[in-house]
Every structure is written in C-alpha cells, then in structure tokens.
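Input for the complex:
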Amino acid sequence: MDTMPKWADIVLIPLIGLILAFLLSGLMVLASGQDPWEAIKIMVEGAVGSSYGWGYTLYYATNFIFTGLAVAIAFHAAMFNIGGEGQAMVGGLGVAIACLFIPWPHWTLALIGAMIMGGLFGAVWAAIPAWLQAKRGSHIVITTIMFNFIAAGLLNYMLVDVLKPVGAMEPATAKFPEATHLPSLNDVFLIFGLDLFKRSPVNVSLFVALAACVGLWALIWKMKLGYQIRAFGHSEPAAKYAGISPTRMIMISMIISGALAGLMAINNVMGEAERLVLNSVEGAGFIGIAVALMGRSHPLGVLIAALLFGFLYQGGAELGLWTSIPREMVTVIQALVILFTGALDNMIRMPLERFFLARAIRARAASTPAE
Amino acid sequence: MDFLTILQILDSSVRLAVPLLLACLAGLYSERAGIFDIGLEGKMLAAAFASAAIAYVSGSVWIGLLAGIAASMALSIVHGLASITFRGNQLISGVAINFLAAGLTVVVAQNWFKQGGRTPTLEGPARFSEITLPFADALSGIPVLGPLYAEVISGHTIIAYVAFLFVPLTWWILFRTRFGLRLRAVGENPAAVDTAGISVIWLRYSAILICGVLCGLAGAYLATALQAGFTKDMSAGRGFIALAALIFAKWRPVPALYATLLFGFLAAVATRFQTINIGTFRVPVAFTESLPYILTVVILAGFVGKAIPPRAGGAPYVKER
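Predicted:
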C-alpha cells in the first residue's frame, strides 16, 4: 500500500527520528543543569569550526562509512550483521600482519596489501557465522555477537602472547615501518600549497571509503548480484523460486559485509595509530548499525549519516573537554537515533501514513466534481 | 592445586554465576514469550547504577534494590513499546537499549556524583551482607563436605539464594501453571493463543516485565553484593554470556542453572589463573574467557545437540484484519 510519497519515507521519517533523538538529548542536557544551546555551540565549534576539527570529524566518518556500509549490505539481504565490531578487530589484525611482516617499498603498495589482508580477515570472520546461518540455521545475530567476543579474545591473545615486541609492557604491536605510513589529508593538501587538516588523523583512507560507497551503490542497484541480494532480502521464497540460491546470497552478502568492516582498519590502525592496540575499534562497529539505519541502507544515506556521527563523535569529545557533560552523551544520542530510526520506526510512520492518506483522500474528493 | 584453592574457585564460581543465572532466567521468560532480548546487558547495567546510586543516597540497600528493578523495568517497557506495540525490530530495540544504558548511566553518574562516571563506595547497610547458613561453623569440622558447605554453599547474599530459588520456581511457573502454558504458547504460536481469546499483547508485556524484574535483581547484585558500588560498564558483557547460557540451556530453566554455573566456573578460573598448563601446552587466559562464546557457537551450529528457539521468537504479532 503506497500511502506515502517516496520522499517522506526516505527523508522525512529518518529526519523526524533524528529530531526526536536530539530533542530528548537536549532535554537531558537541560535536566543536568547545562545549557543545551551552549552545548550545541561547543560541538559545532569543535567539530566543524576549524579545519583541525573537520580533520577529526572526517576521520571518524571514514570509520563509520566502512562499518555503516557493512551493516547496510547485510540489511539488503535481510541479515542483521551485529558483528561489525569483531570483524573490524580481526581486520585490524590482518592489516597489522600485512604492515609488519611484508617489506613494502611504497605506501601505495602497502595500502593495497593492507586492504586485501584487512578485507580478507574481516570477510573470514563474517563468513563463519554466515555459513552457520545458511547451512546449520544458527541465528546470525547471536553468532555474530558471540564472534565479537571471540574476536576480542583472539586479539587479546595475539597482542599479549604473539605480536607484542619483546620487553614491551603494553599489549600492542610494534610501530609499523615508515614505508607503510599513509599520507594524511594534510600531506595531500600541502601538495596544492594548502595547509589544511593540520595534525588531524584524517588520511587517504577517506578516498577508499568514498570509493566503497560508489562501488556498493553500483553493486546494489546496477548489478545482477545486487538485484539478487535485494530480491533475497525482500522474500526468500520468491528468490528461491526465481532460482536464486539462499546459501549463496547469505554467504556473498556477509562476506562483502565483513570485508567492508575489516577494511575500516586501514583508517584507524594503518592510517591513525600506525600500530595495533587492544581497543582500536572503539565501538565503530556498533555505530555502523545506527549509521545504516539512519541512512536507510543506501550508500548516499550511509555517507551522510556517517558524517553526522563523525560530527557527533568529535563534538562529543570536545563537549567532554570543555563542559561537565561526559562524552558518553554521544552514546546516549546514538542509542536514541537507533531507537527512533530503527526500533520505533512505526511510531513515526503510522501517524505520517494517516496524514498522507487523509490528504490523498481530500485531494481526490476535491478533484471530483460535486454531484 | 590444593583443596583450599578448589574451594575458593568453587565459591567464586557461584558468586559469578548468580548474575548470569538471573539474567538468563530473565531472558528465558522474554524469549519463551516470543520476544528476543539482546538488551539484557543494558538492563543489568541500568539496574546496577540505579541500585548503587539510590542505595548510597538513601543508605538502604533495599530501597536501592527497588530502584534497580524500576530502572530495569523502565527499559523493559521501552523494549515492549518498540517490539510489541509498534511492532518494530526486537533486535534493533535491544541494541538501542544497551547503548542507552551504557551512555545514560555514565552521564547521570557524572552529573550526580562527579566521580568520573562511578558511584561512591557503598558501605554497611547500603550493601547486601553475606548470610551464614545455619550450622556452617559447626559442620566445618566434617572433612570435605563441611568446608564445602561452609565456603561454597553458605556465605552468599540474599539475592544469590533468591536466584537459585527462582530456578524451580520458574520451572513450576512455566510448566505447571496456566500462565506458563500460555506464555510458552505465545512464543510458539501467538495466533492460536489469540484465537483462544487470550491477549497476546498482555502476555508478552507480562513476560518482558518479569524479565525486567530479574534483570533488575541481576544488576543490583552486581553493584551492591558482588562489588561495592557502580563503575562504568560494570556488566562487562555478562548480559551476552547470559544470552549464550540461555541458548546453551535450550531455553529451559534447570539446564540454565547448569549452564550459568559452568560459565561462572570458567569466569572464576579465568580471573584466578592467568595461564593454565595442560602438559606442555599452555592455555592462554583469553581462551578461557572466550570459551563460553565458543561453546555457544558450537551448540548453535547443532554439532552437539541442536538448540531450537521458540518458533515465534522475533516476529511481532499482527492480529488478522
């Protein structure tokens, strides 16, 4: 039943959800005795008020583009990949191994190598739950949650017992060699004589993330495989009837999903930290869920939502720095966004549908001449 | 390994199993009624904070406990609104609840106590004290059994004993009462329950409210019995281990007890020993910590006995129009 115009479904509903989330957060800030307007000003100033702030916002956004796309492609196949966190962790392991043990002559080659390894590791970490779902019927949500914890255990073991340099105290790998260091956006802009994004971690991975958006858009809407994935996501029996193999769809969509989550490591591990530490993902895998929901699983939507969350992350950090509002406020906003744009979607949709239906009826009544 | 060490490990196994057991039983009610709940973690965390904060302010652990249960039930109602009333995605709602609790507890704790997102340390009547069961001292002279009774069975808080009592109680409610039969039916075939003239919505709401109460107990146990106060993220994935235990137990109360005791034991071993040597092979502590999750995946994969969830789980019920 098409009671609503398309723009309302795509733009209006997420927007109302977002506004509700922000209103509630504002009320919370107000209740804690702070001025919400002041808080917003600090966030805007800190996140987009300077090219340094932009550098951090874009760095976080790069992470969220990868994890958001990962959740989005799985959503298209009606799979809920809650394991982006673990896949990104294991992807980091792949990137670290690529950077530490292969003597790369130049960063471009190192980047390609790291992308392959990170993507591969992430893909494997998603492929196991996918196979269990397709062949053994284990619920993908539960297995990917379990795999998040197993990934944390694996990473802990690898860092403490295997990859930690001899004599080091902290569970982390050695610094990656110079040749693998990715140019920051500051370096890129310096070529053109512009000193932008100084001392901020945003790096060339951003371009990989943007390319991934375009690539995924082409895959989902311009290729046969994407059509098959969407068909499978809409109706498994119908897809089966059309000769699409469910096992193949589950495996492919989850492998792409895991590879995207794993790719995130070129940004946070290779681009920023330049070594692998225990808590390198910092919840970006989970933010991917909010980003994909907010962006309606469309690559362009994911891009916009990732920018928004990048802004929230950087702004939230500034908020924690300059006010007594801790940066966990961002977690609250994130939760409210997931709640309103995901779980309580119908709460917004139902009244809107009624509104548009009433309007359509009125319009029809007006166009038919009175008898 | 001497006898005393074994006793200590068993004792801390029980201690660590209690919150898992309560959360696991909480999930049992919810999922048996057809509502997936991955928000157990968040509800525990919210209850842990609320109970510690109110117990500190009021000086009474019992008022704290009530506050913890109320906080957890409030989140249950959010979950109910999302997944029952507005027929949204139960998994997404659970994810949102986990984040909401993780963020909100720290924000509120910082605002109230200004100690970096924790509550002040609880003392005296603001904490649950340990109960020494009758004859614990008198019987401790008996070899093996005496110390076992005195150390492992006696000396826990009231919530621990309540948790263990909830196992037979849950079994009785689910399998011997009319309410339990209906609850299980609504998780398998809600349309049939609806046809019989029983409200699906009411049954599912009561299931998630029971779930809220039990998660509240679990959270209060963490902050006022196991530890003395709330610290950031103190539930530390226990809600997910409870979920794992629920699958491990195949959604049944008595096996849930065994599963949580096993996972409690693994946690106790992992905290006590950094590495375990079996012959020349060294087991890293990370492996012991991951074992509950690995075991759950194996069970889910159906290689060792298949775990089949309630059939209507995760699907919102739409009355025929």
